[in-house]
Structures are given as structure tokens and as C-alpha cells.
Design goal:
This protein has 243 residues and is an alpha/beta fold. It contains 7 helices and 10 strands. The structure holds adenosine-5'-diphosphate (ADP) and magnesium ion (MG).
Length: 243
């Protein structure tokens, strides 16, 4: 079961010929079975860190490791190792518009390495996200909340050990968000690592998981059982006794 690690990872983008660090010198280890929230305002670097953690992009400096092996080595056929390890819901919707839900999920199952029992895997994923019966629907016919659920089903179809979720619950109503967090908590209890970029402060505060905060591309806080906005562990209580 994978451990993921970023070591001094920096990612640059070129904007109008100028090099701009989206994130810089990120050191971060996530062990199997953790539930981690990535917090920070828009542009802070959450999506870039998720992409680095999942081997979707490579750092320009530093390195990303999957179980101690530099992810740069998983190119070509080894890419398979990454696809097996991670289920991803991207910030921007990525369902194929001209394919039904069933086709979208079946293709994801194949590219994740499933060769048989595709239909039961798809059915199970749809049932987990509460979307049984949506098999023959096209993405354009779904509401935003429904398409996010389908994207989560697509991420789950191969039962990956690690889920990388980028603003999964943005634009959802409270009932939907509750459902999703309930499901994620359940998956986590059964061993799935969850790494989730989110603005859903209310739910972060209720769940009290590890909270990692970014500002201007830097990791500025990493707190166990944290609340939204915590950047350091609460100070130990000091009892002052009156003389
Ligand atoms: P967040 O997810 O926290 O909103 P991002 O990781 O998307 O932050 O972005 C971090 C910084 O990197 C921002 O300044 C953003 O403009 C920049 N950035 C991200 N992706 C790209 C890209 N493909 N090209 C240029 N700049 C990018
Ligand atoms: Mg983002």
C-alpha cells in the first residue's frame, strides 16, 4: 500500500516568458490510510500539489516518490503503476461528453487495468456514489452535483488505494456534500487514502482530519485533527496556579 512523498518539490510555469513558481520547496509525506485536506485560497497551489502527488506532472526541482521510488521512473509502461495507485477527480470536469456514463466508466476501468468483470465494477462504483440507473445518460444531461458523483465513481472504479480529489464538492448543496463526505469517510475507514483540496470549511471542521495549508505556493501549515485555517498545533495548555 503506497506512501507518497514530495521532497523539496518545486513546479514552475511560464507566464508571458517569465518563470513563475506555482509551488515551491514542498516537503510532504502522506502514509497509506490518511485523510488529508489541502486548504488555501484560490491560486495557493492546491491543484498543483495534487498533480505532483499523483505523478500527473513532474516537479522541476526536487522529486515525487511513490513507495520510495522516484515517480519519474514510472514513464512508458510503468505509468500503469501510477494509474493503479491513484483515483483522481480533477478540478475541471473531464468526462467525455460524447460517451455515456457507462462508456466513461468502462474506459476508466480498462485504462486502470481491469480486464474482466468490468460491468460489476462499474455497477458497484455507481452504487457507491448513489447513481445507479445513470448508465445510459450523457454527461450533458447531468446536474453539476450528479456529474461530480459520476467523476467520483470513475475514480473509484478500480478500487485504487489512494484518492486525489480536487474541489469535489464545489457547487454542491449541503445534502450532497454530506453524502459525499459520509462516503469518503467510509472509504477511509476501510483503508483508502483520501487527499482532498477543498474550501468546504464547515465539513473540514466537523471531520477533524489532517489539514495542510498553502499560501502563495508554499506549505505553511500541517496540523493533525486540524480545523480550517489552523496552521500550527494548538499550544499545550499551561496551568497557572495562584500563589
Ligand atoms: P489552487 O488549486 O490552490 O487554486 P493552483 O495549483 O491551480 O492553485 O495554482 C497555483 C499557481 O500556479 C497559480 O498562481 C496559478 O495561476 C499557477 N498555475 C497553475 N497551473 C498553471 C498553468 N498550467 N499555467 C500557468 N500557471 C499555472
Ligand atoms: Mg485548484
Amino acid at each position: 500500500m503506497p506512501q507518497i512523498r514530495l521532497e523539496n518539490a518545486t513546479k514552475y510555469y511560464k507566464v508571458e516568458r517569465k518563470k513563475h513558481a506555482a509551488v515551491s520547496s514542498i516537503n510532504l509525506t502522506v502514509e497509506q490510510g490518511e485523510f488529508v485536506f489541502l486548504i488555501g485560497s484560490s491560486g495557493a497551489g492546491k491543484s498543483t500539489v495534487l498533480k505532483l502527488l499523483g505523478g500527473d506532472i513532474s516537479p522541476n526541482e526536487g522529486a515525487a516518490f511513490l513507495d520510495g521510488v522516484n515517480m519519474n521512473r514510472f514513464i512508458g509502461p510503468w505509468n500503469f503503476r501510477l494509474r493503479r495507485a491513484f483515483g483522481y477527480v480533477w478540478q475541471e470536469p473531464r468526462l467525455m461528453r460524447k460517451r455515456t456514463v457507462l462508456e466513461n466508466l468502462t474506459m476508466a476501468a480498462r485504462s486502470g487495468g481491469l480486464k474482466e468483470n468490468l460491468d460489476p465494477a462499474v455497477a458497484k462504483a455507481l452504487s457507491l456514489v448513489g447513481m445507479v440507473g445513470a448508465e445510459h445518460v450523457y454527461p450533458a444531461e447531468l446536474s453539476i452535483g450528479q456529474s461530480r458523483r459520476i467523476e467520483l465513481a470513475r475514480a473509484l472504479v478500480c478500487s485504487p488505494p489512494v484518492l486525489l480529489l480536487d474541489e469535489l464538492t464545489a457547487n454542491m448543496d449541503d445534502d450532497n456534500i454530506w453524502d459525499i463526505f459520509h462516503l469518503l469517510n467510509e472509504l477511509n475507514v476501510h483503508g483508502t487514502t483520501i487527499i482532498m483540496a477543498t474550501h468546504a470549511s464547515k465539513y473540514v471542521n466537523i471531520l477533524r482530519k489532517r489539514v495542510i495549508t498553502f499560501r502563495d505556493g508554499k506549505l505553511i501549515g500541517d496540523v493533525q485533527q486540524g480545523r480550517y485555517g489552523d496552521i500550527s498545533e494548538p499550544p499545550k495548555r499551561i496551568f497557572i496556579t495562584k500563589k
